[in-house]
Each structure stands twice: as structure tokens, then as C-alpha cells.
Amino acid sequence: MDTPASYVHWGFILISVPNLIVIGAMVVLFAIALIAPFPHAGEGDDVGNK
Amino acid sequence: MSATSSLGGTTPEKPNSWTLRLRQAIDRHLPMDHLLPDRQPYYVGSWVYVFGVVTIAALVWVVVSGVVLSFMGPQWWHDSHLGKFFNSLHFWSVQLFFIFMVLHLWGQYFMAGWRQGRAATWLIGVVTFGISILTAFTGYLSQQNFDAQFIAINAKDAMNSAGVGAFFNVLNFGQMYGLHVMLLPIGVTILVAVHIVLVRVRGVVKPIDSEGGSRS
Asked: Which of A30, B18, B164, B214 is the one with CA 20 to 30 A from B51?
């Protein structure tokens, strides 16, 4: 807890490993949300829109 | 035109009554089937649309745990087991709030969620994001530990160089704590409520190039 995080230094990019892991996990989660089938998808209709 | 009074009788309603105009405007723009729909458009069947509601769920936990922390105080949240639990609950629900807010932002950006009269919804979301960052920042300054002092002492020069140090003094715990537990959370909550109402008024944006969905 009291030790500083490791950093990735790549050209002008400097980011801590924990931050890099969180951003990577977010990208993966976003990709899964686009690909994964949604329950009862396609059963809706065109209501609720103007 | 008449209306039923609270005493059971009917009273004439003035056509220029602001309450009447407000009620008619709500009926016109936000009927109950829009506010609480039981069916959604077919294109909402995707996990991308879940990010927004998870953000709201995280915000509820942030507010609930924050209220408990503010009632009990720093001694409690630093020293007792239950206090540490609520401190952690507050911290991690904030992490989830920001993670899912950014995922929601990505989703809306790539589907151009500002199309077809939804610019206000998009802009309110952007402003909410900005105020949330300020709320989180004042939260880090309100921890009452060495971490908070370290952040405050390093941030003061940035604030002074930006010209806001006289009004936004990060070394003033009372000011930071007051902003964090009252003004900023109320602002975020009101903006989120308006954001949700606008989503319900306009509905979810149609996919680009679908029938009735345009790029503009």
C-alpha cells in the first residue's frame, strides 16, 4: 500500500501500471458489450422515440 | 375550463395560470408512457445501453455511503472497522461511477448521441462529467489523512497559477469539505436527473443510417 506504483514509460507516454490495467479492462469491457448477445434482443419495437 | 379543488368542489382555472401552463407543458413533452416505458426500441437490445444505468446505480451507492460518512465523521471512517468499510464502499463506488460513466461516454460518442435534437442531453452529460471530476478532487482533499495534505499542497500552485486560488483554496479543508458534501453532489444529482428526463423526453437516438436516423 505504501510503495509507489510502477510506471510504464513509452516515448512521451508515462502511465502507472494500475491506471493502464484499468484502461485496458475498460476497453475489453466495451468490446464485450458490443459483441456479447443481449437477452431478448430484437423483441422491442419502435416506441418511446420522437 | 375547470379543475377540482382540494376541497372537492370545482374552481374556474385561469388560462394564464402558470401552474396550468406548466402542467400542460409536462403533459405535452413528458407523458407517462415516455417517462416509464414498458417497451423499448429494438436497437436498445445491446449491453452498451446498460453502461448509463450502471453509472446511476453507482451514484446511488456513492450518495448513500457519503451520507453515512458525513454523519459519522473522520475519526469513525479512519479507526473503526465499519467506518473503514463505508470509506471503502464510498471509494470503490466512485471508481465504478467513473469507469461506467466513461464507458457510457464512449458508447454515446461512437453512436453520435447528440443527433436529432439531443444536443442538450449530450452537453448536460459533458458538464456532469466535469463537475464529477471536481467532486472527486474535493473528495480526495477531504480524506483527513496525509494523502489529502500531499494533494492539497501540490495542487495549490496549480490553482494559484490558474488564477482561482483566491476563490478555490485547496488548503482550506472547510471549503473543500463543504463543496464535496453539499454543493457539488447536489449539482451532480440535479444534472443527472435532468439528463435522464431529457433521455426520456427524446428517447434513445436511432442508429446512424437506420430508417429515420441521420448523421446530423
From this structure: B214
